[in-house]
Amino acid sequence: MGMSVTISVATERDVEQIFRLQYLCFQSEAALYGNYRIDPLVQSLDSVREEVGTDCVYVARLGEEVVGSVRGTPNADGTASIGKLCVHPRLQGHGIGARLLRAAESALAEERGAKRFRLSAGHRSDKGLRLYRRVGYETVGTDKGTDGVPMIVLEKPAETYAATA
Q1: What pLDDT does residue 2 have?
Q2: Which DSSP symbol is given to 136?
Q3: Residue 157: in which H helix or E strand, if any?
Q4: d(CA 1, CA 34)
Q5: Could you tell me if 67 and 85 are in contact, meaning their C-beta atoms sit under 8 angstroms apart?
Q6: Residue 156 to residues 12, 21, 22, 101, 159, Cα–Cα distance (Å)
Q7: Are 113 and 93 in contact (CB under 8 A)?
Q8: For strand 79-87 and strand 65-74, is the pairing parallel, antiparallel, or unpaired?
Q9: How far apart are CA 139 and CA 152, in angstroms?
Q10: What are phi and psi of 43, to 5 degrees?
């Protein structure tokens, strides 16, 4: 390929690429549920811009192209919510998602004081669930997304992020 994928903090200049990538990546999730109104597909560009400005947002780049992203938000109770992990379909299966998760976990624990990480995945999202379990997340419950999709909630203690790095 000639270039390697790098992971870095997202900036304002990445917002539109993140927005387009998210829309592309979550099409397959929407198809799993027959629901094209899932949260990542209806999020506005301004909302993505706000998240990049306030949350812990990382991107994977191949040259100048954003090919992956993830967001994390610390909560008052020490739990950091991680979400909207996506990797361009042509690059999935190469460890980029795990690298993005590690970057977000590291920043959330070291810079924002997270004690635990929580994320959720649709109950039919086998690839995502496999990844999360492989990097140490364990199922702690179920929920229903605001879009009606049944979700599996997973967590792991912040001190374990280093073990999966």
Answers
A1: 52
A2: T
A3: strand 150-157
A4: 35
A5: no
A6: 30, 27, 25, 12, 8
A7: no
A8: antiparallel
A9: 7
A10: -65, 140
| Separation between Cα atoms, residue 112 and residue 109, nearest integer Å | 6
pLDDT single digits (tens) 108-152: 999 999 999 999 999 999 999 999 999 999 999 999 988 889 999
Three-state SS for 159?
A: helix
Quick one: average pLDDT of 13-33?
96
With contact defined as beta carbons under 8 Å apart, do 60 and 100 qualify?
yes
What is the chain's alpha carbon radius of gyration, rounded to the nearest angstrom? 15
Residue with tokens 């702690």: 140
| Res. 160: pLDDT tops 90 | no
SS3 65: strand
**In the structure encoding, which two tokens stand for residue 7, read together?**
């992971």
Among the listed residues 15, 162, 156, 50, the one whose alpha carbon sits nearest the alpha carbon of residue 103: 162
Alpha-carbon span 8 to 149, nearest angstrom: 31
Collapse the DSSP code of 12 into the 3-class scheme (helix H, G, I; strand E, B; otherwise coil) and give the result: helix
CA distance 138 to 134: 9
